[in-house]
Amino acid sequence: MTCTSTQIRGLIPGVLLSIVLFAACNWGNKKTDNGQKKAKTDSLAHNQSQEPALATKAYVAELISRKKEIERQLPGISPEAAVRLYNGLALYVDSALTGITENEGGWLNVYVNYYSEEKNAIVLPDSVRPTVTLLATAGIEPWNIGEGYTELRTKPTFYTEIFKTSLPADYRSYLQLNADEDTVLYSADAGLMLPFSLIGQRALHWEQFLTTYPNSILADNARENFEMYCRDYLFGQDNTPSFDNHQEISSLIPGNKQTYLSFVQQHGNTKTGAIVKLFLDKLATEKSVESLRNTIYAEIRQVFIPRMELLPAQPGFSTAQVEQLTKATYDTVPTEEGSYKINRDIDSLAFFRQDGHTYCLATFRNGIPAGGGPATGWVDVWVFKNVDGNWQHTDHLLNAGGGGMYGNSGIFDRLTRLGTGTTGIVLSGGITHMGSNISWDDVLAFNNDQLTKAFSIVNSNAYDSPVGNSYCKYTRWSMQPVAQEDNYRLVIIAGNCSNAHNLPLEKTVVPFKNGYKIPEKFEDRGI
């Protein structure tokens, strides 16, 4: 079988991005270099999907030519101009690898069968060897990722060897980390291929990157790497779990426990060490592996973002009490949208503290499953407050956000901090229709016991066409504290994506000025 992407993190040098991308030309950095040598604009960074299908030899020749041209331009170039060259090359590499994979699918499908037990190595037939040798001249190699799948990728040091010291420090560090990691297969067949101790070290490396370069455009990708390694380090994967029994919290494998104890002893003053220590402490208090996982995952997500004080489920307040407190309102609203029934049910409850008070967020899904394509569901949001032991309705917004075609309601995604006294409530919605895949976040602000709509932002916009013209754009957003200001600023990273792989191209900072004014290009839902 042929596979064109791994399940490992975003913007990975040496790993194939499988969808031919259409790069958003208005997201690139257009500034000149103030007298420095100006990097040539790579047209494929603007309209990559228009690249015609080529023979493998033509792709290889073009890639070699581009590498040589970049190497010619690099001496004396500014770091910012080098980034533009890097982005353009990364986009073309993606396009070339996709085209070559389509050309060479015949032997890639059976590549694993070339393995010789006698020689303990891949032995290529004469019909394939010249092609593999040709690909190697451009820095491309077959890579077995398990379960019978083989992909084409650039070798791990592809980008570090080309750009050397020309890129900014954060790019150099990021690419070197990935180059070091990609020399070995991380996971396959739903199992880890590395010892747990090395996974803990990887988490430390990404923690160090995020500590050193907190404002890097690459920080979002680095944070995803850090979080993935922390989760896998402590809980493993399906076929390499850290617990003998997925249900029994007392079944932590002794070797894993010793590894974690040693890690805390050596790295207890790091953020990763603090998570591992919390994991060990919670083994004595959590009732199940699932509850432990929920607690630790929530902690991992907050390591590099403004912290929320999240609480466990509170005794005496559950879905039954929520339904009772919302009944009077729901008895007055329609149960049908047009002639179609609305299916309304509780999506989730989340407890948190703000300004010294305990709150419960309750979200309701409103779906219209019989409504067909045009029907759009939504999510309602309710907030309740514990006042002297009594839970009271504080505020609510009906049709607060989310939604999607075919009557889908969307979901509550998470709580996040928008300011020193403001909690953000993130609702996610999306559309999948005729090859289009669009998703968005609708963010509410809860402040002074009131709910308001803060902003909406599209986080993914992709189109997969069987005849080309495919594209994939993404945005990631986060909140950043501002000295002596109650409201945080919004940071948006935009770029090109393919499966789990993100190539950031632009960073936009939106300050709070009587609200957040989101650039229109981040609000366009396309349909």
TrEMBL record:
- State the name under which the record lists this protein: DUF3500 domain-containing protein
Q: Which organism is it from?
A: Chitinophaga qingshengii
Provide the taxonomic classification: Bacteria, Pseudomonadati, Bacteroidota, Chitinophagia, Chitinophagales
